[in-house]
Amino acid sequence: MVSTEAYGTWPSPIDAALTASQDGKPEFVGTVGDEVWWTEPRPAEGGRRALVRRRADGVTGSVLPAPWNPRSRVIEYGGMPWAGAPREEGGPLVVFVHHPDQRLYAYAPDGPDEPWPLTPVSEIGGGLRWVDPQVQLGHGEVWCVLEEFTGESPTDVRRVIAAVPLDGSAAGDRGAVRELTDDRNRFVTGPRLSHDGRRVAWIAWDHPQMPWDGTVVKTAEVTADGTFTGVRPLVGDIDESVVQVEWDRDGSLLFVSDVGGWWELQRIRPDAVTGAVVPTSRLCAVRNEEFGGPLWRIGLRWFQLLDNGLIAVVHGRGTTALGVLDPETGELVDAVGPWTAWSETLAVQDTRVIGIAASPHTSYEVVELDTATGHTRTIGAPHEDAVDPAYYPEPLVRTFTGPGGREIHAHVYPPRHPDRTGPEGELPPYVIWAHGGPTGRTPLVLDLEIAYFTSRGIGVAEVDYGGSTGYGRAYRERLREQWGVVDVEDCAAVALGLAEEGSADRGRLAIRGGSAGGWTTAASLTQTDVYACGAISYPILDLEGWATGETHDFESQYLESLVGPYAEVPERYRERSPVNRTDRLTTPFLLLQGLDDPICPPVQCERFLTAIEGRGIPHAYISFEGEGHGFRRADTVKRALEAELSLYAQAFGIERSDVPRLELRK
C-alpha cells in the first residue's frame, strides 16, 4: 500500500554503503587470442582496478592477483593500461602499468612467475609513466606512450612514443628504452601499426589546443629494426579534432574527425612512396550524430574493423548505440538491446564485437554482439539488482530553453518509491547535477548515486550544459571563453524551468558537481540566488592559481579557450573566480576534497575557506587522505554521500535519522 510522506523523508534500502560498493564500472576491453579481457573496479580494496579474463569456455577469473593495480596516470587521466598477446607456448603474455609506481610490468598469467618490471623508476617529478601499450612480439618489444618528467614542476614533462624490451633489460637502464618519435609534439597517442607492418600512425597535438579543439594524424614508415622514418602529418589541424585512427587491410587509414561539425568516420588513402593522398571520404551519410568523443584518456576506441570488412561503431546524439557499418554502402545497423550508453572501448573477435554498455535499468556490463546472427548477450560484469528495481528512478530525456532561446539538454529523474508518494500540493526538492570536464556529458544509465536521492524523495536533474559533448562541435563551443557564464546560466535555466512547470519546489533547489562540475557549482552559488545549498567536490575555485601552475600539464592551458588568454584578460580570471566572489555567497555548502589531487589541488579549497572566514556562512569541509581526483575508495564514497544528504536535509528542512548529522560551521 502506498502511503503519503513528505518528500525527502522516505525510507530507502539504497544506503550509502550499498551505493559505494557498486561504484565504478568495467573499462578497457580487449581480446587476447580467443579470450576477452577487461578491467573492473574494486572499491572495497582501496579502489584498485582488477584485470579480468573470460576464457573461451566462458569461465571468468582474475588475470592479476591483488594488490596489482593496472591503471595509468599519463596526463593524469590515464588511458589503456594493458595489452595482451597470445603465444605458442606458455600461454598469453600481458604487459600492464601498475598504478602505485607507474612502471610497466610483464606477466604470464598461466606461468609460475610473478610479474616482472620492464621499465625503471625515475625520482624526477612525477617519474616515468606509460600508457596505451602495443605488444610487438616480432620485435621483442612493447610500443607505447612514455610520459617523462624532467623537473619538479607539473609542466616539466615530455611525451614520446617509445619501445621497451620485453626481456626486462630496461628495468634498471633508461638507456635501453628506444624513443621512436621526438618530443616536438606536447602530446601523442599510442602507435597503430599497419597490417603489413610497414607503416604506423598516431595522433598528436600541442598547447594551447585540447584534443577536442585540434589534433593532427602523423604517419611514418617502419624499418626492419622497428625505427620510424619519414614522419609526416596526414590529416587534422588546429581547428579539426581527430580522436581515433586505425589502418584497414587495404592500406587505407580510417579516422574520426569533426571537420564537418560532428565527429564522423572517414577514410584516406596515403601513398607510402610519394606521400600523396586521395581526398578523404565519409563512410556514413551525414546524420548529425557523433561517432567519436573527447579524448580525455589515451587509447579510447569508438570504432573497430571486423575481418569481414564491416566496422563496429559507437555513435549517437546524446545517447549512444553500438552499430555495424558497411563502408561500401554506408548502411548502418544498430545492435538490438536495452543499452543507451556505450563506452568508448571496443574489441573484435572473428564476427563478434565486444563493448561495455549500460541502460537506465542496468549498470555497465561487458556485452558481445555476434554480427553474423545479430544476437547480443552479456558476457562479463553482469548487472545484478542489489535492491528491488522499483526503487530505481525513471529518467526523462528533456530539452529546456536557455537565454537567447538556446536548447539545453538534460536528464530528469523525478522522485520514485514503490511505497511512498508526496503529499498533495507539495513539490519535491531537486538537485541539479553539473558534470565534469566541462567537455563531458551525462550518460543515460542506472546510477545508484542518483537512486540514493530519488528513492528518498529528492529529484535529480543532470544537465548537459553548453560545452558538453554529444551534440556536435557548435554545442560544445558555446563554452568558448564563456566558462562560468554559459554553464551557470544553463544549470539555472533547468532548475528554474522545473520549478516554473510545477515539477520542483522553487525554495528547495540545490546544485552539486565535481571537478569542472565543482567549479560550476561554486560559480552558481556565488553568482545566482537560485539554490538553497550546494555540494562542491574537488573543484576549481581560483582561475588565476589554476592558470599559473596549480594544475597538471594536460589542462594547464585549458583556460586559454574556456576563459580567454590569461595575458590578455587577467581581470576576467579574477572576476569569475568563486574565491573572489564570496561576498555574494549566502547559502550553506559542503566542500569535499582528495588530499592527493594533482589536478584540482587542496590549496584551492583552502584559499576559498580563508576567503569566507568570519562571514557566518554555514559550511563543512571534508578532506580524504589517499584520494585523488575523483573518489574510488568505498569508505570515502559512503562518507561523502551521507554528508551530502545531511546537507540537503538541513537546507530543505527535512528530518533524517539514517545518516550522521553533518556539522555545519559558520
TrEMBL record:
Pfam families: Peptidase_S9. This is Prolyl oligopeptidase family serine peptidase. Residues 447-653 form the Peptidase S9 prolyl oligopeptidase catalytic domain. InterPro entries: AB_hydrolase_fold, Peptidase_S9_cat, Xaa-Pro_dipeptidyl-ppase/CocE.
